[in-house]
Amino acid sequence: MASFRVQEVLLRTLEDLNAEELKRFQWHLIQGVLDGKPPMAKGKVEGRSLDETVSQVIQFYDDDTAVDVTEKALQRMGQTQLARKLKKNLDNGKSFTLCSVNPAHTFKPRPHLYHMTFRSDRPSVPQEPPTGTLPVTFSPTPEPLLSS
């Protein structure tokens, strides 16, 4: 399954194509643009909207191949600036993409829901920093801090 990030970048890159350029892009997909990778079936992309075309490309190829095919097709069309934009947008997002998530879900920080509590059985006497790990517990609400 393709990541949402790749699909989003492909859509944002290809939305700069006009209707005729989209047809040419689809033609390149049908002809095949990468050696060793099969061309797409005519019925999968011909006459499809941009969204449908991108979905078909992502379903047909894995993420890396979908990007490579798109980049190569754009280069063959003379759209080198769009091909560079595609790579730049993907490279910019690499350091931030840790995993692929369902785009329907949104994650918002909720610091009030979890509180991290560190406990140690060691006396609170000045000493060297402890070695090893301390037990960590998560609780729905903060526990009152113990004063020594």
From TrEMBL:
<feature type="region of interest" description="Disordered">
    <location>
        <begin position="119"/>
        <end position="148"/>
    </location>
</feature>
<dbReference type="InterPro" id="IPR004020">
    <property type="entry name" value="DAPIN"/>
</dbReference>
<protein>
    <recommendedName>
        <fullName>Pyrin domain-containing protein</fullName>
    </recommendedName>
</protein>
<dbReference type="Pfam" id="PF02758">
    <property type="entry name" value="PYRIN"/>
</dbReference>
<feature type="domain" description="Pyrin">
    <location>
        <begin position="1"/>
        <end position="92"/>
    </location>
</feature>
<feature type="compositionally biased region" description="Polar residues">
    <location>
        <begin position="134"/>
        <end position="148"/>
    </location>
</feature>
<dbReference type="InterPro" id="IPR011029">
    <property type="entry name" value="DEATH-like_dom_sf"/>
</dbReference>
